[in-house]
Inverse folding.
């Protein structure tokens, strides 16, 4: 039996770093990294709770494989969107207004 404190602390640290990365960063790629950190923390928690249980062949060992596969596909699609935004706007800064917003006239 493993001690559960270490993996639970690791999972909470990964989720906390992910939330902080999403909340603080303005760069779209770094926001995606924060989302992936949160997903990794959830996977660590899922594997830990499966390893602590009596049934070693439960879904806790198979579900992370599917989640990692879906996360890889998510990263590919998200990076494609970020690349398309960069080609259109010239920047991936999330706080920077788009060119359409800067050229629009403001009313009286």
């Amino acid at each position: 039996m493993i001690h559960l404190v270490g993996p639970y602390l690791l999972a909470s640290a990964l989720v906390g770093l992910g939330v902080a990365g999403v909340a603080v960063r303005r760069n779209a790629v770094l926001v995606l990294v924060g989302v992936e950190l949160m997903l990794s923390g959830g996977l660590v928690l899922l594997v830990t709770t499966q390893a602590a249980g009596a049934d070693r062949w439960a879904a806790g060992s198979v579900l992370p494989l599917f989640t990692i596969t879906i996360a890889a596909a998510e990263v590919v699609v998200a990076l494609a969107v970020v690349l398309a935004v960069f080609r259109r706007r010239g920047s991936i800064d999330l706080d920077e207004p788009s060119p359409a917003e800067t050229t629009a006239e403001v009313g009286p």
Q: What stands out?
A: The two ends are 70 Å apart (CA to CA).
